[in-house]
Amino acid sequence: MPIHDPELLARGERVLGPEFRAMSERVLQVTELTSRLNVLAFDDEPGKSALFEQILGRPLPSRVTIYPPFFTDHGLRIDLAERVFINQNCTLLDYAGIRLGAGTMVGPKVTFITLGHPVDPDERRQYLTGAPIDVGENVWIGAGATILPGVTIGRDAVIAAGAVVADDVPAAVLVAGPKATVIRSW
């Protein structure tokens, strides 16, 4: 049973076995690639493009901008639409999948997390839980925000700096706070 199946992750799946070993090997490979990416000269566009293609498994879509340093654990499950902007020091832990809609802007030090561990201490080292993150079009995510597993963010929403988003965010609202809550809509 593959670890990346969202239904299995939601139930919690054992992380021991060949799927976990393959995931661990990919994490090591991508860590090496992002380490190389993050020390390239800022204006080395061909070098950055080649490394992003290896990390993502395909070329960056047109007009996507990612400022290093950039971090990811898997890379192959990041879906970026056109005109996505990702500022420096962002982390996309994408094993369960991350989709960023067209025109999305991501501030510095934003973290997307698609996997976690059960709260029960007896299960914590044996299982992974998680779900994909889906970000709609024209979303703005402020500096230092954290987006947790399974969250969907609606079109035109704004996530304030430092917000921790654990629940879905409707379209065209601003959310803020240590447990992001809607504070206004338009």
Secondary-structure content class: alpha/beta
The 3D shape can be described as globular
The average pLDDT score comes to 89
Percentage beta strand: 25-35%
User: Total number of helical segments?
Assistant: 3
Read across the widest sheet, the strand sequence of neighbours is: 2-5-8-13-16-18-19
CATH superfamily: Hexapeptide repeat proteins
Q: Give the helix proportion (percent range).
A: 10-25%
Distance between the termini: 44 Å
List the domain count as a whole number: 1
Q: Uncertain regions: pLDDT < 50 for 5+ in a row?
A: none
Key phrases:
3 helices; seven-stranded mixed sheet; single chain; five-stranded parallel sheet; UDP N-Acetylglucosamine Acyltransferase, domain 1; alpha/beta; 19 strands; 186 residues
